[in-house]
Design brief:
The complex is a heterodimer of chains A (about 120) and B (about 140).
Chain A (H helix, E strand, L loop, with lengths): L2 E6 L3 H11 L4 E7 L2 H11 L3 E5 L7 H11 L5 E6 L3 H10 L3 E5 L3 H13 L4
Parallel strand pairs in A: 1-2, 1-3, 3-4, 4-5
Helix pairs in contact in A: 2-3, 3-4
Chain B lengths: L4 H28 L4 H20 L3 H20 L4 H24 L7 H8 L8 H4 L5
Helix pairs in contact in B: 1-2, 1-4, 2-3, 3-4, 3-5, 4-5
Chain lengths: ~120, ~140
């Protein structure tokens, strides 16, 4: 059975690329969001197993959106998408409760491996 | 997973065009109000997004300029305003990005790098240079 993923990035380019990378590998994109507020709303609606969340988002930053998602569901499994040069933001996100991170530009194998690892790791 | 890069190049050109237009609007706003948090945030996000897309397609020269632009905006975000001389440098960055992305549109190829522009974007503003370096000592 496919694992249900919510993808949040303001760039359609990135959302499309993520979809093409993960859907052949046993993941199903059940929702997309284009800003930090929409991702929280969509999370409430679709209850995904995983969230891929860009760290830089309009309206509400990726880290603020992460905190809001965890307030809705403390066991949410959120993987942050960052870019080179954003190490301090990644650290902040991991401390706030993100389960993993992926660095752009995406390496398809690394994206899939990280999602599988986060999906399969039991809750502490 | 094999991605159709021609399709992503088309998507990149569409989205990057929109981003450049929003970046231009943000810089015009910053000319009027150097402390506009919305304009600073928008310019930061547009540069970040262009960087991510360009890097994904291997357009390293564009990603480099967008990265420097984003870093400069991060400094302005921390400072809460853009330095007066900084807006000019940002417009140079916008012009460079427009030129480079136009080159992709025309040739389908990555443009050459622009180390001078990268250096200009990375350089501190006049206000950020320590005063000892601003004054040429006569001895």
């Amino acid at each position: 059975m496919s694992r249900r993923v919510l993808v949040a990035d303001d760039a359609a380019f990135m959302r499309q690329m993520i979809r093409e990378i993960i859907e052949p590998e046993g993941f199903e994109v059940v929702g997309e969001a284009t800003d930090g507020l929409e991702v929280v709303e969509t999370f409430r609606e679709v209850h995904p197993e995983l969230v891929m969340l860009d760290i830089v988002m309009p309206k509400c930053s990726g880290i603020d959106a992460l905190r809001r998602i965890l307030a809705v569901d403390p066991s949410a499994r959120v993987v942050m998408c960052s870019a080179l040069g954003q190490e301090s933001l990644v650290q902040e996100a991991l401390q706030a409760g993100a389960r993993g991170f992926i660095v752009k530009p995406f390496k398809p194998d690394a994206v899939v491996a990280t999602l599988r690892q986060v999906a399969e790791k039991p809750d502490a | 997973v094999k991605l159709d890069l021609a399709k992503y190049r088309t998507l990149f050109l569409e989205e990057a065009g929109d981003h450049l237009a929003e970046l231009s609007r943000a810089l015009l706003e910053l000319e009027k109000d150097a402390g506009s948090p919305e304009a600073i945030d928008a310019a930061f996000r547009m540069a970040h997004s262009i960087k991510g897309m360009a890097a994904s397609l291997g357009y390293e020269s564009i990603a480099e300029i967008a990265h420097r632009f984003e870093d400069r905006m991060a400094r302005y975000r921390a400072a809460g305003r853009v330095d007066a001389t900084g807006v000019g440098v940002l417009f140079q960055g916008l012009d460079g990005l427009e030129r480079m992305i136009g080159r992709v549109r025309e040739t389908g190829e990555a443009p050459p790098g622009s180390p001078e522009l990268a250096a200009a974007l990375a350089a501190p503003d006049a206000a950020e240079v320590p005063s000892s370096k601003k004054v040429r000592r006569r001895s």
